[in-house]
Specification:
- The protein has 343 residues and is of the alpha/beta class.
- The chain is built from 13 helices and 10 strands.
- Helix 2 links the parallel strand 1 and strand 2.
- The chain is globular.
């Protein structure tokens, strides 16, 4: 009898320990790590938590480039469960670091195949990084990239550092695509001329657009900035909806950007993290982002708001670059850019 009681107590203790271990491993929230430009409507935020089945805490970790670098440095003790905002310029770096675990959302069937680059991440939105200009200062202009090195544009352009900013890197890649690495005038020559023409470099998009740019909501004195083709609709919607957009888009030097969400490999979010990715690709989230983050939804079934369509420029020939080419050259290009522009 004593032996049987002792055995029963041991079994019960093991069961209790196992249950306690499982309870400790189960998440009580899902953490979404994203960039500083992340924004969604309150009703969509509420629907997100309902769809996931847990509270969703949002951690904004700087510009996309800085966010990815931080996620790589902390991958053994991840900042969260799902990372959103990594784009095609930084994607291969994250994949080489095994930052994400593989997951294929059932909603990917609604995404064009050219956006679905790797099943470790899920395409959420697409847009074009382009130069924006202040119409009040410059009127309506469509200069070439080479024109920006001329005296009429001296001291007028602000860009982002490509080492820390995804728009900054996208614009750098656009200049590589435009001028190449060989010949009489290369991308390095272009940037040397921009430096001589007093280009300003900020660390991220928000600092450049709101702090240095003079157009629209900007509070600076530079009438040219690297931003997005979809930035003018934001100026109209948050400004005077009856007035023309105070900013315009220069189609030369645009770069097609795809943003992804991925489940961090160190996450224990399991099916809850998967549910968050699915929600971000579903129609409620997808139809919200054009007027909150001012990008195009990746889900081709999502309806676009008419005011977004009316004021958004879709460049005819944005630069594109294979992710493998970016991975093979990105660090070298950034190093060379740094030597020419900031040292």
């Amino acid at each position: 009898m004593r032996f049987g009681s002792a055995s029963l107590l041991i079994v019960l203790a093991l069961v209790a320990a196992a249950c306690g271990s499982n309870a400790a491993a189960a998440p009580d929230e899902i953490v979404l790590v994203t960039h500083d430009s992340f924004a969604i409507s309150e009703d969509v935020r509420d629907a997100m938590e309902t769809a996931v089945g847990l509270p969703v805490r949002i951690v904004q970790a700087g510009d996309a480039g800085a966010m990815v670098n931080q996620a790589i440095l902390t991958k053994d003790n991840p900042l969260g469960d799902v990372l959103y905002g990594i784009d095609n310029t930084f994607l291969t770096r994250a994949l080489e670091e095994d930052l994400f675990r593989e997951y294929r959302s059932p909603l990917l069937d609604s995404v064009p195949s050219e956006l679905d680059l790797d099943h470790h991440v899920t395409p959420i939105d697409v847009g074009d990084v382009c130069l924006n200009y202040d119409r009040e200062v410059l009127g309506d202009i469509q200069p070439s990239l080479r024109d920006l090195t001329g005296p009429e544009f001296a001291g007028q352009l602000v860009v982002q550092n490509p080492a820390t900013s995804s728009p900054g890197l996208s614009f750098l890649l656009a200049t590589v695509a435009e001028f190449g690495e060989t010949g009489d005038y290369t991308w390095i020559d272009f940037w040397a001329d921009l430096r001589a023409n007093d280009v300003k470099v900020d660390s991220g998009w928000e600092q450049a657009y709101y702090g240095s740019f003079s157009g629209g909501a900007g509070e600076g004195d530079r009438p040219l900035v690297v931003s997005y083709a979809s930035s003018p609709p934001a100026e109209v919607i948050f400004g005077d909806p009856t007035a023309p957009a105070p900013t315009g888009v220069i189609e030369a030097g645009c770069f097609r950007q795809i943003e992804f969400a991925g489940i961090l490999a160190g996450s224990n979010g399991g099916e809850y993290a998967e549910a968050l990715v699915d929600f971000m690709l579903d129609l409620q989230f997808q139809e919200d982002i054009p007027l909150t983050m001012f990008v195009f939804p990746a889900n081709q079934d999502a309806a676009l708001p008419p005011e977004f369509v009316e004021h958004t420029v879709v460049p005819a020939n944005p630069a594109r670059m294979d992710p493998d080419e970016i991975e093979a050259n990105r660090d070298r290009w950034i190093t060379e850019w740094t030597e020419v522009v900031t040292r």
